[in-house]
From TrEMBL:
Residues 1-24 form the signal peptide. Coiled coil: none annotated. Keywords: Signal. The keyword Signal applies. This is Vacuolar protein sorting-associated protein 62. The keyword Repeat does not apply. It comes from Brassica carinata. It comes from the Eukaryota.
Amino acid sequence: MISDTYFKPLIFVLFLFANQLSWAQTQTNGLPVETIFTFPGPLPTTLPDEGDFGKGIIDLGGLEVAQVSISNSTAQRVWSTYEGGGDNMGFSIFEPINLPPNFFKLGFYAQPNNQKLFGSILVARSVNLSNLLPPEDYFEVGNTTSLDIKQDGPAYVWQPVCLNGYQAVGMFITTSPEKPLPSTQQYTSCVRSEFTEASEADALLWAINGVSVFKLRPIIRGTQATGVYTGTFSFQGLISSTPIPPLFSLKNTKLDMYSCMPSEAQTRVLFQTYSPLIYFHPDEDFLPSSVDWFFTNGALLYQKGNESNPVPIQPNGTNLPQGGSNDDLFWLDYPVDKTQKEMVKRGDLSSTKVYLHIKPMFGGTFTDIVVWIFCPFNGNANLKFLFIKRLSLGDIGEHIGDWEHVTLRISNFNGMLWRVYFSQHSGGALMEACDLEYVDGGNKPVIYSSLHGHAMFPKPGLVLLGNDGNNGIRNDMAKSDNVLDCGSGYEVISGLSGVVEPPWINYFRKWGPQVRYNIDKSLEGFAKILPWFIRKSFYKLISKIPVEILGEEGPTGPKDKLSWTGDEKYY
């Protein structure tokens, strides 16, 4: 018979355990991460069987990698916290399981709890057995025991100790202070250094009390860059007794960034699956058009020193100067006739087509389908400031010619849409596919173009551009009958074998003249209508607004943008 001396403490421990388990179950129930994200429509499973695109495995030159989509059958949740981060819901860490034969994990996967379960992580198989090795040991990066947060007990973060000539690309997470053993199939592999390159913080996953968790990405990114996005993450801010060496990204040593990209036929299937639907604001006066509509309706080419003799632009821009740089020697402008000019300014949605640039990203493991949209005119800016809901800034913000774009980032492993980039004035936003709105019954993202400025957003409503969330330049988005189905009219202009670039894409000068507005005088006029004690705040707000918003000159074309050969610029 068990005495009370042993029985009562045992009952107390079981009581605490039961309460902790019940609390954890209460926390996880109803969290978005508990639901696996699925696309509303069918994925493109019937792609033409051409090349190495969509085969599931990519060879980096002796190191093969596969992309594991996180689900209940491919990953098990190791640990969660339930506060901090997005919507103060915390985040969760998952360990890849049931890997393909002879593949080994490179790290663990993490994502915020306020998102449906969606994402992937790479696992690796060595063609040459020496390209992957188990770690010699692990050292503790830190743990969460000292964090006063709601969590599934403490998490212990370990980093592999690799043999000289090898690097770690991910961490190992346990819920026990016992050091993990580098035993078969349980370890986080070390990768030969020639298959790695430097990484940096990507998206912030979670932050609280000075501790933060970031996804990792290669530092150097672009069409010729070799860095591969692995899907691992790093902890920062944990107390550690030793300096923490960096984690690395993978590297494609084959140097052929196009070998696993989709063919032209495959690209068309992908674009028909994921082509966006773009809504323009009900009050939008300045709609897009095709480039040829702009040219054939009277657009003129001007040359410095010969301004009195503008030249009509031929269809497809065949008489535009090619190459060179943005040297202000040439620019485009509207027809001289006022009636025709006003007509061209307003665009023509019925003629509009989008222009696709296809490019490799992350060492050829992803494909970017960049969707370029042209608007003949960018309207004036409107300001929200304190009690003034909408203050028109007159001519400020207006310019001739406006190029905007949306980028679809698609996995070359399986043809799945991963992220969408929304261009927004001087930068943009990169959104995961699980966070987007889609056309009913399909996989076409819904996009909203802001009133007059044509910046792209994933949701309707009001977004203010400025130094705080209460004042700034207005970006107004809403649905209307003015909608552009990008899949109904498009042209591939660059990036695929056999595609001949149209002449206008190699015109590197401005698509509109430089118009001199006296911005300082205009702003001074607006400031005068304000009470004197808030004028300082008004000028401070204006100083925080990117110059592109207050711009006076037409932009250059798509090929002159840094993102043409580089990665997107996002906040």
